[in-house]
Write a structure and sequence with these properties.
The complex is a heterodimer of chains A (115) and B (111). Chain A is an all-beta fold and 115 residues long. In chain A, 0% of the residues lie in helices and 60% in strands. In chain A, strands 2, 4, 5, 6, 9, 12 and 13 form a 7-stranded mixed sheet that branches. A 4-stranded antiparallel sheet of chain A has the order 1-3-8-7, with no helix packed on it. Chain B has 111 residues and is mainly beta. In chain B, a hairpin with a 2-residue loop joins strand 6 and strand 7.
Chain lengths: 115, 111
């Protein structure tokens, strides 16, 4: 779905480095999310934002921070990367319709390797 | 909070047979249950969803059933084809209006 893009698509970094993953969307959705995916663990929510002034921690927020720069942009930062943050990271967007949550649209993912 | 359990973790079926994946959830207030398909190296994509005001929904070869009393829902794929091979995730909405995902089922359709 080209409406949700992520950069970079692949990244190799070293322990202790700060890195930022970026997400942009053209769907006009207010809600944006960051997930990480590990084999056998499914998709786990890191942070989510319901609008530019609203940031919330998800299930596994330790070691991560986010910034909602605009309705269309939501970035994820690893302040000091560690090897167990090696994972596939997905950004997603969604919206409410008549008060009900609509489906989430995922970006293509960023594969991160921390050495 | 919500917890979603998904079974089985792997499933192999012969082409043309049916496949069933089951999920249970813990929050009785959950009212939205989507299913996502993730092909190798691709992003998860919605294939079907169901809200708590219905018990079953069908879309061609795919169907989802929901039992609110037992707090479980299932994905049914009939007449499986090799292109159905993928990882399937169930999810349930949480009180914070987010989705909590199951751990996934790797479906392999053997030609």
């Amino acid at each position: 779905d080209a409406d949700v893009t992520q950069t970079p698509r692949n990244r190799i970094t070293k322990t202790g480095k700060r890195i930022m993953l970026e997400c942009s969307q053209t769907k006009g959705h207010d809600r944006m999310y960051w997930y990480r995916q590990d084999p056998g663990l499914g998709l786990r929510l890191i942070y989510y934002s319901f609008d530019v002034k609203d940031i919330n921690k998800g299930e596994i927020s330790d070691g991560y921070s986010v910034s909602r720069q605009a309705q269309a942009k939501f970035s994820l930062s690893l302040e000091s990367a560690i090897p167990n943050q090696t994972a596939l990271y997905f950004c997603a967007t969604s919206d409410l319709l008549a008060g009900e949550l609509e489906t989430q649209y995922f970006g293509p993912g960023t594969r991160l390797l921390v050495l | 909070g919500e917890n979603v359990e998904q079974h089985p973790s792997t499933l192999s079926v012969q082409e043309g047979d049916s496949a069933v994946i089951k999920c249970t959830y813990s929050d009785s207030a959950s009212n939205y249950f989507p299913w996502y398909k993730q092909e190798l190296g691709k992003r998860p994509q919605l294939i079907i969803d169901i809200r708590s005001n219905v018990g079953e929904k069908k879309d061609q070869r795919i169907a989802v059933t929901l039992n609110k009393t037992a707090k479980h829902f299932s994905l049914h794929i009939t007449e499986t084809q090799p292109e159905d091979s993928a990882v399937y995730f169930c999810a349930a909405i949480t009180g914070a209006n987010n989705l909590f995902f199951g751990t996934g089922t790797r479906l392999t359709v053997i030609p």
